[in-house]
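Here is an idea for our session: we take a single protein and study its fold together. Once you have written the record down, we can walk along the chain together.
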Amino acid sequence: MNRLLVLTELFLPTKGGTAVWAAEVYKRLGGKDIHIVTADVPGAAEVDAVHPNTVHRLHLRRVPWLRPESLAMYLRFFFVSLGLALTHRFDAIHAFRALPEGLVAWLVARLTFRPVVIYAHGEELTTWGRGGKYKAMRFALRHADRVIANSEHTRDTLFGMGIDPHRISIIYPGVDVTVFRPGLDTTGLRESLGIHPEEKLVFSVGRLSRRKGFDQMIRAVAQLRAEGIALRYVIAGIGEDADYLDGLIAEHNAQGIVHRIGAVSDADLPRWLNACDVFAMPNREIDGDNEGFGMVFIEAAACGKPSLAGDAGGTGSAVLHNETGLRVDGAAVDAVARALGKLLSDAVAAMAMGQRGWARTQRDFAWERVAEKTRALIRR
């Protein structure tokens, strides 16, 4: 039986890979003896009512007039976590990021003589410059008993920060292979956008931020359409680049070819991944911000689809080049267009990539497998 204290600001029903990872793994590692301290968000009561772990919700909001703004959040995390650690016999304390959770977890662990494990996801390691936040993050990571990196790229970044290599373990994030799987009913999806049976469908989903490469995809799709390739492109998600992407669609006269459909429901996301021919997210690094892994590539693979990814960040752990998809320079539109054209023009090769990706998810990325690796780490 695992008795753990888990600190994570991001937890269901919050969207995103980190929130899903925390919920999926720890429910497979134990029941009420695992205590999760997280943020109170709309819809939390419904999640907590059915989640097998004990969930403690806090108001984790930054206060603009405080210096630092996150001081109140750190204090709430600290006092609740310390109280739990003093009244329960936890085997270890786990933090899903170095800041804010990891720093708090380290202090609580040292005060209560418990080992501390901190997760590193990649993008947070390179976006804070070299100021106070970076130094605090590095301190927490360097003093953790174990650091879990989500990819080889993240591990190498940790090496560069001076983290002891012997304290780093790689555990990839996972996917629910009972939800993301081939053969789902896709009736009505293509039809809702007027996509004809002979047209290829390329699909993207994620936060609408520049590094995801959706702007490059719009340019590449317009280029391929001009070359006579019959395709449509669907972008799902919300974010700060929405107006920018709409402007690009208009600039390339791609209305009716590129469709921005906003947020999709949890139920519809696997259906869209089944409906498409290729999943695409040609990510690139912008001002140190990059993709640490890319869980959505694994979700696409679990549905039997090949992926087009950028070669920046840790996507090489999620997409195996020329095996489960293609990785290209996401900053080069021509490279993106060529790779996309290759996947669309050779259906046999694309299907084989999708099948290899599916087999890999079953073997390496099912949440049960991720839980097994985490359990083995706890035992060590």
In short: The longest strand covers residues 200-205. The mean pLDDT is 94. The domain at 189-364 is CATH 3.40.50.2000 (Rossmann fold). The chain has two domains: 4-171, 189-364.
